[in-house]
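Long-time lurker, finally posting.

We've been working with Alpha-glucoside transport system substrate-binding protein (Micromonospora pallida) and I want a structural starting point before designing mutants. I don't trust myself to interpret raw outputs, so I'm hoping someone here can both generate the structure tokens and explain anything notable. Sequence follows.
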Amino acid sequence: MRRRIGLLLVPALLVAGGVTACGDATPTGRVTLLASWSESPEGGEKPDDGQPGIEAAAFGAVLRDFEEQTGIVVDYQGTRDVSQVLRSGVDRGSPPHVAVLPRLNDLQTYVPSRKLHPLDDVLGDHGGADLAPQLVTLQGQVYGLSVNVVPKSLVWYARDQRPELPQRPPATWEELVAADGQRTRWCLGMSAPPLSGWPGTDWIEDLFLHRWGARTYQAWTAGDVAWDSPQMRAVWQAWGAVARTSTPNALLTGFNVAGLGMFAQPPECHLDHQGSYIVHDYRRQAPNRFDFFPFPPFAARADAGTTTEIAEDVVGMFQDTPEARALIRFLAGERARRVWREASGGLSFTLNRGTDPASYPDDVSRRIAETLTRGTLCRDASDLMPAAMTAAFHRAVLHYLDAPGDLPVLLRELETVRVGIPDGEWLDLPCLTR
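Top reply, 14 upvotes:
Generated this for you. Predicted structure of Alpha-glucoside transport system substrate-binding protein:
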């Protein structure tokens, strides 16, 4: 989907939200922008279940406000396959000025060739210490700006079905499993074309993080942990136990459909492991009937503090123009965050330290925002890994659900992929301590 966001041709006024340029020429033209939010339901991660543009509309509101503030026209292309479209543009010598990437590894791919421009002098002291957690530093320079964050370490339930959970959420993974046993059926859906399988990788990632801790998790995402190690095997086996008590036909069930079974009478499933984006679907199906608790640590990690897996949408600049700089500074500002938060119904989250969770409109969104203000935040492992590793990971979780007895073979195959990837393709980014 490609369209021009606005038609405003008013004088450029770089005001509000930190748009004022420092030493740049006053931009008055156009800026091209590529991102993953599409008004047509193409599928892929976080689709809107046939409701075109829930996320695209919220982002569009931000871009329209930018146009109104500056007079700069945004030519926007939304596609679920950002990686391929961006690569094609770069190879042709006509990349977008700015791209919003859901995979951090894609960002670092363009650093050695200098196809990606650093943002140090674009942002400068803009935002100060509050902005610092949003900056992605590669090889000693800032190349990315995190503009949208999805907390993923969340377990959802129907309030009327599990009235005890708000007061007594499980303190450990073992407590959750022991308390519920076979009584709990997990809501599980793997279908998310064209990237089916990522709901399963989210499971493996959360289990690994909460079993082995942030330091080992970080080593894994950087390619330094073998896939056929005892640590990894234990995590997959833990997920296998979940899958045995999950939604039937999980391979064919949409990830954003599976959890709606919690609200059926009688319930078809009881717990759903999903990121904050799932609230869109819950609100339509069962407003005010859902809640969440944090993904619990394994008992061995119970005293290590809170850890949360996050996914990020990160802005990179592929053509250095005054208009591109103005857009990036705007997206780094409070005004953009406020417009995005309001337009999304309180479901746009940020790493910016200056954002008050109390500014969110309801209890659930406020508590989601609070998860980003404490403990340790570790980025989605498959977003950090090289594309070949991520693709193999997606295929493996689908195969494992279909044939759990093949786990030893699958892990050996994943390990073969890992050792065949050059060291320079791995991205070693630390977890964030709040």
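Before you design anything, note these points.
Confidence is low (pLDDT under 50) at residues 1-23, 41-52.
Residues 154-308+378-433 form a domain with the D-Maltodextrin-Binding Protein; domain 2 fold (CATH 3.40.190.10).
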